[in-house]
Amino acid sequence: MYIRLNNQFSFWHRYSGYINCNQFVMKRLLFILSMLAATSVFAQQKAERPLVQFSGVVINADSSGIVPYVTITNLSFNKQVNLANYKGYFSFVAHEQDTIKFTSIGYASTTIVIPAKVNDKSYTIQVRLSASITHLPAVRVFPWATTDEFNKDFLSMKIADDDLAIARKNLTGKSISSLEKTLPLDGGDRTILNYNDMHTNLVNSHSITNPLLNPFAWGALIKEIAAGDKSRGVSSDY
After folding, report:
1. What radius of gyration, in Å, describes the C-alpha atoms of the chain?
2. Are 56 and 90 in contact (CB under 8 A)?
3. Is the dihedral of CA 92, 95, 96, 100 positive or negative?
4. Interatomic CA distance for residues 120 and 52, integer angstroms
5. CA 32, 34, 39, 41 torsion: positive or negative?
6. pLDDT tens digits for 74-106?
7. Which segment, 12-16, 64-68, 140-144, 158-162, is predicted with the most confidence on average?
8. Rounded CA gap, 77 and 51, in Å?
């Protein structure tokens, strides 16, 4: 009797496990089928949306100037990317009720939804982008890549002279003479230089003798005249 009850219990235990397993498999199949049905319905609805020739121009919202080379992303159609030309003009095919995003460096992005039931299968729009100002934190750039390089340069650094040491260097004779050679003369220096030149000429004028008052010069002149007469065969006796 005990063996028979035990066999019946094992049978019902195996049967209940088989039922639970089948229920789990059925739930998984129902979930997969529902997902496939929803995907097919969504794809069908998406495919049924009419095509639209979406065109327009992108301008600055503040100055009404052209914004060139704007990136245009169709968020509703696999994130398809288009680009405006250098005049800000764009034109491409999209679907009704597609979400279009316009982005450009230096401007805040904007999003536009193409309306449904567009006339003539064409939709033209003027997109306005507002300038975006980004404040970046201050960055300090150091010429040392590592702390060891900083310590090495710091220890070998030459301390600059103070104001008194700099003044003493500028007043040395060597520094002043070098400055005199390079700096132009002012009015006072030119006046002193002219006076010195006039004094030098005046002193030198007294040291210059008149050759007509020199007897040696007269003797040399007479000799030159006599030598010239002899060369021409003329007697010098008077």
Report:
1. 55
2. yes
3. negative
4. 9
5. positive
6. 999 889 999 999 999 999 999 999 999 999 999
7. 64-68
8. 12
